[in-house]
Amino acid sequence: MLLRWFSIKGKNCQQRMLILVLALVMSVSYSACRADNSMTSSASLKMPTEISTQQANSMKINIKVKDKVVTATLIDSKTTQDFVSLLPLTLTMNDLFGREKFAHLPRAISGEGERTKTYEVGDIIYWSPGPDVAIYYRHDGEEIPDPGIIAIGKIDAGVEAFNVPGSVDVTIELVQSQ
Asked: What pTM, to 2 d.p., does this model score?
């Protein structure tokens, strides 16, 4: 069909046309992707977000563990905002290495946050291969394997509620600001 539009003849005509068509398709695809990305980033700067930076810096969650309620402060990141979109959550958190409680999330969340291979007691993190959320209650000096973890928050006080043998059922809820 394309051969009728062009008066190109010869042995390598079909190969040349195929290369031309592929180059054209790639160019259009690249342009569409660039236009989409630039529109998304400029639109996101102008549109009000559901969670402002000030709110995200002071955003709190309650984590109910048995008869205790532990409060945590979330950090401002795309990963955290995506995590908040899952709340409220009720999870069974299993023990791992006697240092952390972890649970599988119902779906993967944004992995755009800064990754690290270290943690502190009280850190709430996202482990993307799971996809899991975890809370560190004890430090064992071990480094986290690739691809690392993304911090989403920190327990304010009461992290010892997680330092119990075996699994614990928890409910995580966003603290509504007054």
From this structure: 0.68
